[in-house]
């Protein structure tokens, strides 16, 4: 009974956050749900799409829906690690050294145009994402919980950018795309933003303590041995695929496992089914693959490779 209550709480929370964000972002219910899945898993999200379709607005709408501290970082080539982690300076009035925290010491961090920062600055963000801490002058400082990085990047404009290293891409639980709205959705956008700015009117619908409690409840969702084997088979298939030079890491295996638990809870179930895994696999696994030179030459999409693997891998059947 206790688990059922927790699942119902997760369902209500997911619906409430989704509805709140939908007041600003129109026609992207699937993406919003995946964003909530990542939030419940304490995972980070990379939005990769063309400019002007709402990536930054989506991240801001999520942050405003949560009663959590929020900071936005505009990544540029001259951004230094200390600009995001903080600095220690000498306060002449007090006659002592003080620490001035950077924007990373927040619960929700929007890393806008992340691929415009230099590798040195990206490495500082890498530590925060994986270790949930920052290092300043040989001292480590834990980050507040919950902690989530929502990053954006433009895959089309390459001038003045620094491609994210594979190690950092692997730290993102999901890679999401918004895509262009259809004609009806675009008309709705024009009408909704005609006289008001919905983003400014959003209010928090959940606080950090509630969110942390639900994140812990996700781990209790049952995953059968058949589902576990299914996830492992999918991951190993990426490592043996002829078009893939480097397959999914064990971190990716765990990411798909956790995301499937969160999706099951959002759907009102206390157990994971194969459809949860199949639905999440492209967003959780594709960005972790490194294509062979031959695949890149032919413009092969790693998302399609994951789809092919899903079609060729046997789905577990309930005993």
TrEMBL record:
Signal peptide segment: none
Residue ranges of domain ChlI/MoxR AAA lid in the record: 237-297
SUPFAM superfamilies noted in UniProt: P-loop containing nucleoside triphosphate hydrolases
Alphabetized UniProt keyword annotations: ATP-binding, Nucleotide-binding
Gene3D superfamilies reported in the protein's UniProt record: Magnesium chelatase subunit I, C-Terminal domain (1.10.8.80), P-loop containing nucleotide triphosphate hydrolases (3.40.50.300)
Superkingdom, natural source: Bacteria
GO MF term (any one): ATP hydrolysis activity
InterPro entries attached to this UniProt entry: ATPase_AAA-3, CbbQ/NirQ/NorQ/GpvN, ChlI/MoxR_AAA_lid, P-loop_NTPase
Residue span(s) of domain ATPase AAA-3: 44-174
Matching PANTHER family: METHANOL DEHYDROGENASE REGULATOR, MOXR FAMILY PROTEIN
Similarity field: Belongs to the MoxR family.
Protein name: ATPase
Native species: Dictyobacter aurantiacus
